[in-house]
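Run log // design_07
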């Protein structure tokens, strides 16, 4: 090997070259399939209704680069409109200039953060060319979220005996508004817990973001009615941090159990009692065991002089707060059990804080300020990701525009061989021919050939 003077390409160079080559091949293959589908539609269309007008070139940015192809424009004699039958068949608006899959990835990057600008840079680094600006990604996310919010689900409402609700508020700063910030009130609804391997996940999780001007619980009640078959026997278990607006849930539902979120209680008690390890250990165990009487007795027995002086005023207020919420420190499973409901598999509440951290990380990290429309769209995008769904990038719905015919399959379009195969199949390597032969990889392959 010492006689070879040509340098071999690095792994990065090989990988980059192969990826760019695959992009070119994908673009060519995608264009061929789309034009073949368009030709199929031309022959199978209702000739009496759709009059062929023109054939126009369009380009779409995809995950593998820009795809250029031609599609036919038709005049719909019935509706008096001009349509592209290919767009109808693919449930895609060709004017978007962006593939639905690439749009979903851009929105996914944006919802993960840390910023729209970073999302644009990550897309560019992945694809090798600038696809969307950060402003365009923001507009796409807001548009898709608002479109999704107008879609009324036709799914059958689920019948449930117990619904679990985690409620919290997230404060975000606003830009160019009279008010400096706003609290985004939201709820996470699920039907219980289920084992998934070594982990436990929430069953049938849904999110609600309050965006109307009315009361939170009125809007949330409408949300529940749309998704669940509820009556006066349905139990609602609500977990919250003790805010007044959360506590109002008890006056809105026939059978409602309101519990105080133990994460927030433990955090505050540790702040006050952290320097008293024995007392802290006692209240922590009482809180974990839902022993409200032991917890309050221990808290009330702490001499005020043992609390740090700068915390004493807050301590007095917090002890009074715990007294008011004594009945909200109970184990909801005891109440349900007394009502004849099987509580097997039910777990302590408290998943909201982890969910809120995900949203806070995206909306509050870096000191960002938002518009009301922008922050609500971002929160809804994160909620969709948390539910395991994606915001659709499809702009139009499929419509039946053809005469009844057997369904076309993409693989059928690839059966006819237009030209002889090139490359490894007939014994040639493309990198040894054309402009690639002078590249580092081409020179290295020539050296190996001898």
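design_07 sequence
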């Amino acid at each position: 090997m010492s006689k070879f003077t040509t340098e071999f390409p690095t792994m990065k160079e090989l990988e980059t070259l192969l990826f760019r080559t695959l992009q070119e091949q994908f673009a060519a293959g995608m264009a061929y399939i789309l034009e073949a589908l368009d030709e199929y539609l031309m022959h199978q269309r209702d000739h009496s209704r759709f009059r062929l007008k023109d054939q126009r070139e369009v380009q779409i940015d995809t995950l593998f680069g820009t795809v250029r192809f031609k599609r036919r424009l038709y005049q719909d004699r019935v509706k008096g409109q001009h349509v592209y039958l290919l767009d109808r068949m693919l449930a895609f608006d060709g004017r978007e200039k962006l593939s639905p899959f690439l749009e979903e990835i851009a929105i996914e990057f944006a919802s993960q953060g840390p910023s729209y600008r970073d999302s644009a840079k990550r897309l560019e680094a992945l694809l090798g060319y600038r696809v969307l600006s950060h402003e365009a990604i923001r507009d796409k996310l807001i548009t898709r979220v608002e479109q999704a919010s107008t879609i009324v689900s036709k799914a059958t409402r689920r019948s449930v005996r117990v619904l679990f609700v985690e409620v919290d508020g997230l404060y975000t700063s606003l830009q160019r508004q009279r008010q400096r910030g706003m609290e985004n009130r939201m709820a996470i609804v699920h039907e219980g817990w289920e084992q998934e391997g070594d982990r436990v996940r929430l069953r049938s999780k849904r999110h609600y973001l309050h965006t109307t001007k009315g009361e939170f619980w009125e809007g949330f009640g409408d949300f529940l009615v749309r998704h669940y078959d509820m009556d006066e026997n349905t139990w609602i278990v609500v977990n919250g941090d003790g805010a007044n607006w959360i506590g109002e849930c008890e006056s809105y539902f026939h059978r409602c159990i309101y519990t105080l979120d133990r994460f927030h209680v433990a955090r505050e008690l540790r702040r006050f009692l952290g320097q008293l390890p024995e007392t802290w250990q006692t209240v922590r165990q009482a809180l974990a065991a839902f022993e409200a009487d032991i917890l309050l007795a221990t808290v009330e027995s702490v001499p005020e002089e043992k609390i740090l002086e700068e915390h004493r005023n807050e301590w007095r207020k917090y002890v009074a707060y715990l007294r008011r919420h004594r009945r909200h420190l109970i184990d909801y499973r005891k109440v349900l059990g007394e009502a004849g409901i099987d509580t097997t598999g039910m777990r302590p509440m408290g998943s909201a804080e982890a969910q809120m951290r995900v949203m806070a990380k995206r909306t509050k990290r870096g000191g960002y300020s938002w518009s009301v429309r922008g922050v609500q769209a971002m929160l809804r995008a994160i909620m969709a990701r948390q539910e395991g769904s994606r915001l659709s990038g499809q702009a139009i719905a499929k419509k039946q525009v053809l005469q009844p015919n057997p369904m076309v399959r993409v693989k059928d379009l690839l059966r006819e061989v237009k030209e002889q195969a090139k490359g490894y199949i007939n014994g040639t390597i493309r990198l040894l021919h054309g402009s690639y032969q002078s590249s580092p990889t081409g020179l290295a392959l020539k050296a190996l050939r001898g």
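The chain has four domains: 11-97, 101-150, 159-371+383-387, 422-448.
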